[in-house]
Every structure is written in structure tokens, then in C-alpha cells.
Design brief:
Blueprint (H helix, E strand, L loop, with lengths): L1 H27 L5 H6 L5 H11 L5 H14 L12 H36 L4 H15 L2 H15 L14 H35 L2 H8 L4 H12 L1 H25 L5 H11 L2 H29 L6
Helix pairs in contact: 1-13, 5-6, 5-8, 5-11, 6-8, 7-8, 7-11, 8-11, 9-10, 11-12, 11-13, 12-13
């Protein structure tokens, strides 16, 4: 297991480097001059040249790339083109809100979706199966922003139970949970619908395997067949599905943060896009890319924990 973990960690380094390179190049190919965006169309050439030098975009692309990687390693993401404040300060302030929202969605999705998917598979073509499949279909049909608006309309505007916007005070657990409830439910329900459908499909495939029929033919109790043989063999597919959809959930958190006006990374990124703040946009995209690589790494390491036979 130790050797497997080391190999996966080492393999993640070039993957992370490749992803960061794509982020760097994608920002550089955007149309428009960042200096002209900040100073306006009527700025003098001397002022534009001075700002380009300050931003470091007057250097050759190779040197800009080296400075970009060096800054990431040192934790220096540069200064915002709009506010002039260090971008890392804004990211550190916003990061907890995005992490708590994403983790809440993942935990709720797993706690609801996986058991519901297994139960519906065990009661195939019965009432509970129809209800679970209906829930999955409806949940996957709702975009996150639409579900968020519906929950906001019901619980915030009509019933006045939860706040409409804001992320709460991170030092106050009660206030944090109070503001996290609706965004977390929005993320969790959509993931739960997906996990229900996929867990049901995986469980049905496992129940049709020969070793399950053999265990039943030996006269084992159905509970032993399910818990000892079937559930163990759905762990790898469930981990794969969780890893893939967790990455999708990170992207979905951007829209949810905008809907509920949470001060997370999504709000920073959208604001940077609207204001043409290339430095802040590049930094937030890099952070999201690091999240994706880390989630893939955690998924790979979970494979080794569940099945020690995995050596690749």
C-alpha cells in the first residue's frame, strides 16, 4: 500500500503541472490587453508600458510561466488588478466557504444516495424502487441554480426560516450552519439523485454475478449474501463515481455560491471574469485545478485501501 501511495502521489505531480500549464495558457490567449482594460482606452503608451511591467506581462511567455509557478509555490498569487489587494488574502478569506459547501454536498449526497440506491436495488420493481427512481430522475433534471431558487423561495421568502444570502460568521458554528443549510441541501440533493441512480445500477450488476448466485445456492442467509459479499464488491465502483461527481460538484458550487451570494471562490472567479481581473481569475482557476487533482489522488488512494490487490 505504501509503494502504491507513493507512485500515485508522484504521478499526480506531472498531472498538476499539466493542468496549471493549461490554466496559464488559457488566460494568456484571452482577447484584449489587461493593461488597457485597467487604465482604459485613452491611457497613454507610457502608462500602459509601466502597468505591463508592474504586472509582469511585458516579459517573454516562458519567464511569465516560471514566475507563475514560482508564485504558486511561494503562495504569492500577485495583486488584484481592480482592488490592488493581494489575491492570496481574498482566496484565504473565501476558501473556507467553498470547502464547507462542497464537503456538505458530498457528505449529504453519499449519506442519502448510496443507501437509497442499494435499497432500491434490493427491492427492484417494487414501490420503494419506483420512488427512488423517481427521486433520482427529478433530482438529475433540476439544474443547481433552479433548485436553489426554489428552496430560497420556499424556505427563505415564504416560510422565512433561513437567510436568503450570505455565508455566515465562520467563528460561530450555529450561524455558519444556519447560512449553510439551503446551499448545502441544494448541492447534496443533486449529488444524492446521481448517487442513487448509479448505486442502484452497480448493486444490480453485482447481484447478478455468479458468486452471488453461488452464495445463495449454498444456503447462506440473504443478509450475509448482501453485507458480506455484495456490499464489499460495490465499493470500488462507488468510490469511482464519488470521485468523478465530486469534481462536478466543485464546478457546481460556483453557481450555488452566486445564487446564495456566498463569499466563496466562485464569487471571486465570476467577479474577476466580469471585471477582466486576469490575475484573480488565473489564481482562482489554479486553486480549483489543485482541488481536482487532489480529489483524483484521494480517489486513487481509496482504491488501494479498499482493495490491496491494486498495484498500478
Amino acid at each position: 500500500m505504501f509503494g502504491y501511495a507513493i507512485r500515485r502521489i508522484l504521478l499526480s505531480i506531472p498531472i498538476l503541472l499539466a493542468v496549471l500549464t493549461i490554466v496559464f495558457l488559457s488566460i494568456r490567449v484571452l482577447p484584449g490587453d489587461p493593461a488597457a482594460v485597467v487604465l482604459g482606452d485613452y491611457a497613454s503608451k507610457a502608462a500602459l508600458d509601466k502597468l505591463r511591467k508592474t504586472m509582469g506581462i511585458d516579459k517573454p511567455l516562458t519567464l511569465q510561466y516560471i514566475d507563475f509557478l514560482k508564485g504558486l509555490v511561494q503562495g504569492d498569487f500577485g495583486k488584484s488588478m481592480i482592488t490592488g489587494a493581494p489575491v492570496v488574502r481574498e482566496i484565504v478569506r473565501a476558501l473556507p466557504y467553498t470547502l464547507e459547501l462542497t464537503l456538505t454536498g458530498i457528505v449529504l449526497g453519499l449519506m442519502i444516495g448510496v443507501p437509497l440506491g442499494i435499497i432500491t436495488a434490493l427491492h427492484r420493481n417494487r414501490f420503494i424502487d419506483y420512488m427512488g427512481r423517481t427521486f433520482s430522475l427529478i433530482g438529475q433534471s433540476f439544474p443547481s441554480f433552479y433548485l436553489g431558487l426554489l428552496l430560497m423561495l420556499l424556505f427563505s421568502i415564504k416560510l422565512k426560516l433561513f437567510p436568503i444570502i450570505g455565508g455566515g460568521d465562520l467563528t460561530d458554528l450555529k450561524d455558519t450552519l444556519y447560512h449553510l443549510f439551503l446551499p448545502g441541501i441544494t448541492m447534496g440533493m443533486i449529488m444524492a439523485a446521481y448517487m442513487t441512480r448509479m448505486s442502484r445500477s452497480v448493486m444490480l450488476n453485482v447481484l447478478n454475478e455468479d458468486y452471488i448466485r453461488t452464495a445463495r445456492a449454498k444456503g447462506l442467509k440473504e443478509s450475509i449474501v448482501i453485507y458480506k459479499h455484495a456490499l464489499k464488491n460495490i465499493l470500488i465502483p462507488i468510490i469511482s463515481i464519488t470521485g468523478v461527481y465530486s469534481i462536478v460538484l466543485i464546478g457546481g458550487s460556483i453557481m450555488v455560491e452566486i445564487i446564495f451570494s456566498r463569499p466563496g471562490l466562485g464569487k471571486i472567479m465570476i467577479g474577476a471574469m466580469m471585471q477582466r481581473d486576469y490575475i484573480a481569475l488565473q489564481s482562482t482557476m489554479a486553486i480549483y485545478s489543485v482541488f481536482v487533482v487532489i480529489l483524483n489522488l484521494i480517489t486513487d488512494l481509496a482504491y488501494g485501501l479498499v482493495d490491496p490487490r491494486i498495484k498500478y
